Amino acid sequence: MQTNMQPKADTFQNQLVATLPAMTAFAVMLTRNRPSADDLVHDTVVRALSREELFTPGTNLKAWLFTIMRNLHINNLRAGHRSRIVDIDDDLLPNLASAAPNQEHRLVLKELFQAIGGLNQDQQEVLSLVVGQDMSYEEAAEICGCPIGTIRSRLARARRELERMLAGDVAMPAAQPAAKPRRRGAAPMLDMIEELRAAG
Hints:
Layout: H1 12-31, H2 34-50, H3 61-78, H4 93-96, H5 103-117, H6 121-132, H7 137-144, H8 148-167, H9 188-199
Helix pairs in contact: 1-2, 1-3, 1-6, 2-3, 3-7, 5-8, 6-8, 7-8
């Protein structure tokens, strides 16, 4: 009698791996720094795997993971692991664009991220979830732990403020030099990400 040793395509771990690119993008929007984002993704994966039994199969895994990530990020901020918002790493810009940017696209993206950095944390988070991750208002409200009306209000204010900054109606926030966070020993997943970045 032969047993099938192939893992099912819909196992928790496979679904988690499929969500890694979205988790990385959300982590970059939260931390604005690639090493910090990698650490946040790693911590989220470790927490999710250790609490797999708390996830209800058939529900939205992405929303569950983003909630874990958001809570870890808030805990890190409260613990003082990151005292200020830093300018986005230049090496992230090509990864965030849908096509390889030329110099003009790079400058536009940098200006956009600088403007996003001028928004408050709540507005940045909602903008990332609804616009960047294409989540519904309901999913974003679940992740942020607030009513849908609050999500809509934050998103409207964020869009209005971005529009004013990019149009030159209000001053753009000053870019801050990127901080070099202390990095823990990289897990195998982070080593693989670094290898892919180096190969690209």
